[in-house]
Amino acid sequence: MTIMMPASDQAVLDRRDAIVADLRAIVPGEGVIASAAEMLPYESDALTAYRQPPMVVVLPETTEQVSRVLKYCFDNGIKVVPRGSGTSLSGGALPLADAVLLGLGKFKRIREIDFDNRVVVTEPGVTNLAISQAVAHAGFYYAPDPSSQIACSIGGNIAENSGGVHCLKYGMTTNNVLGCELVLMSGEVLRIGGKAPEQAGYDLMGIITGSEGLLGVVTEVTVRILRKPETARALMVGFSQVEAAGECVARVIGAGIIPGGMEMMDRPAIHAAEAFVNAGYPLDVEALLIIELDGSSIEVDELIKRVEAIALGCGSTTCRISGSEAERDLFWAGRKAAFPAVGRISPDYICMDGTIPRGALPRALARIRELSEKYGLGVANVFHAGDGNLHPLILYDANKPGEMDKAEAFGADILRCCVELGGVLTGEHGVGIEKRELMPHMFSEADLSQQQRLKCAFDAQGLLNPGKVFPTLHRCAELGRVHVHGGRLPFPDLPRF
Amino acid sequence: MTIMMPASDQAVLDRRDAIVADLRAIVPGEGVIASAAEMLPYESDALTAYRQPPMVVVLPETTEQVSRVLKYCFDNGIKVVPRGSGTSLSGGALPLADAVLLGLGKFKRIREIDFDNRVVVTEPGVTNLAISQAVAHAGFYYAPDPSSQIACSIGGNIAENSGGVHCLKYGMTTNNVLGCELVLMSGEVLRIGGKAPEQAGYDLMGIITGSEGLLGVVTEVTVRILRKPETARALMVGFSQVEAAGECVARVIGAGIIPGGMEMMDRPAIHAAEAFVNAGYPLDVEALLIIELDGSSIEVDELIKRVEAIALGCGSTTCRISGSEAERDLFWAGRKAAFPAVGRISPDYICMDGTIPRGALPRALARIRELSEKYGLGVANVFHAGDGNLHPLILYDANKPGEMDKAEAFGADILRCCVELGGVLTGEHGVGIEKRELMPHMFSEADLSQQQRLKCAFDAQGLLNPGKVFPTLHRCAELGRVHVHGGRLPFPDLPRF
């Protein structure tokens, strides 16, 4: 499967030297990178199967510079691809040959820590983890915790509406972000939201969150911080059948218990993780649940007992309860290392990301097993079980002819299955280029047109991150006709590595 | 202060009889109301100071009828004002003389109760309370609980992003709605979201929630239901200084405790409520907090002790803890009846609705007291203290010349103060017509233009609920120019009663 991207604008490419010079006038010093060697690190994001050198990389340091760069590109019809730390798993920050790659890496300062209102105001290039570290001394933290939290930026978290193991209880990025400063493609600077939890007017913060860099460039973020729970303890529960583990998840939630995290791994994932980190995982089970309860000590003690009883009622075969912080960390170590661990047992793998209604978990797992047999490819399942967010890792060998195409077809079938079960193409990794072609499977033409009209309300010329999310780009004027037919842009192939 | 509304379209008024006949062909039987007497109940919503008979009332029963009515109006350039139960406090459902009033009152059926996925799929005319009642037998409920929950419709809750006393812990409407069916002004039907908590594409559900009927008409809703907490107990805590009560709120939240509800009343509100319902409120205090803790019995017992200790540390002078469900209900009875209770001590009152960052509570209260002296009008303060949502009730006598204008000026000053303190013009009652003119105080021209571009992405002709939310309506084509100047529509006066 090759990926189609918008045609390069030859007139822009012909003017490259002049454009680079103009950008240097806006962002002086080392803020403009134009040599092929220095641009290498920007050729892909974490979806490394696709690579493309950008036309030029610009690394502004101030909102004013971002605004001037965008206005310059707006006035001259030049495309722009925004980039945070480049940890996107769906190709959201993949460059275009004729576009400016706008990196926010120099926006690294935390501007304000306001404990009274329990918010942090920060620049978008600050990493997710750095926010928690900056408030840890006072017993606070920032809740969403994607696996990439050491590296991923808070601006990128907003673009992708990132989740993490604790999002079951504490929400996704969209539930933890209160406001931002947004620069539109026109260069206009908007202030959206603020420290107060409710806002007048349309929920612009909600649209920006998860918009994958297609609507504007975030230059400041206000996030909510939470007080660290007094205690957290985890159960590690094994089951001889995957369905029983699914039933346990449903019963815990059904009992009104919202764990801080509730993660499931199947047999291949358990074995891979255990071989990698020696977390003490049982190897004779088909499914393992890690369930973390947090709150006051007395509350956690009681919840542990209730969850243990529920697990037993679902036929759990093993159950260990963490007796110390070190043991709790060990339970999680295997889960957190599951992706690299699977990388050790298979030459290559694709990490899929889809969601299903919790009640459909057993059906989804059965279907994935059927597909695994049909395609003759192994699969290791790791998922945020509590909120129905699946991460099947499809195992393949890129050196065997045809296996990569089979793996991609397998992945697409899993996502179609998620949609058929009433779920969604993506849980937290975004659509990007990876799932772009699957969007019509989930959305009707009317749905997609409405989403694109919304895009037009922010970026009428379609200059910001084109080729991502939408399989077909319509001109905004055509969308005004409400019923849209045709209007496809010519898409040449983009090389894949 | 008179309120300006868009000019009536004489060409539409001249065609009224033909329009009524055309609408009767779409919605047969008693679904079209055109006589002045029968249209009387639709002349205003709960902001009763403003009244306006609509051109015609249409009460469709199916999505197809809604779609056909909207398409007919779209094709013929006829304005439409959607209406749920008409309990809006900001005039969101106020009719226009040349507009179809589209009532959703016949959409009264709950379509599906799905306990496995913990959602209810319902028609928009179902009341907020009816949803909780429909799932109560299984121990579930729908969390947002506006004071009007017996009457207000879930569709109206979406339009206003309604809150309630339990929203501190369980979120506003936007946090509890997962999907909807939306009919655009063009008649196109979109399906937005679904049962899964995360969604691909832009967060359309987020924009629709709180959009005050300007973007589309909701014909089906999927809401999240929660399991009822095992126990709920309340503390009633009195303070001799309002500031001490504010400090107590901050310390409870700062300690990482999120009460199910945390409400504050000041002396005038306490006295009015106690005289009305005999809840046993202390009359010798300046501020009263009602703090409800919910969860498992063991957890609630512990939290009660911690909150009591915090309150004592802040200098509380009285503290009672509910020992039974009946006593807890009694604590709340006074708070829930505060609005009608204040109606008994003053001929007229305006209920304001603004939010501030929690940390600014003492400053906001001091400013409201200053303004009360400046205007010579009493004020009773009732608020959702936990999330900084103020509801000052401004007391006046409409029979005294000039008092109503003074009260409105006082209210506007309070909202300006909220914005200056980093807060927002509205917490949960919407902008509607009431706060429309204050929008530029909160938003820059660029902000308002961006919100209107978003409106244009849904309703390019501006036919849906015009005159609400935005002080100035721009034509969508003008907004395309990005920088907007002028372009005001001619607004004649609307009579006020």
From TrEMBL, chains A, B:
Q: Where is the FAD-binding PCMH-type domain?
A: 50-228
Q: Which organism is it from?
A: Nitrobacter winogradskyi (strain ATCC 25391 / DSM 10237 / CIP 104748 / NCIMB 11846 / Nb-255)
Q: Does the keyword Flavoprotein apply?
A: yes
EC number per UniProt: 1.1.2.4
What is this protein's name?
FAD linked oxidase
Extract the PROSITE patterns matched here: FAD_PCMH (PS51387)
Keyword Isomerase (UniProt):
no
- Gene3D superfamilies documented for this protein: 3.30.465.10, 3.30.70.2740, Vanillyl-alcohol Oxidase, Chain A, domain 4
Q: Which prosthetic group or cofactor does it need?
A: FAD
Q: Which UniProt keywords apply?
A: FAD, Flavoprotein, Oxidoreductase
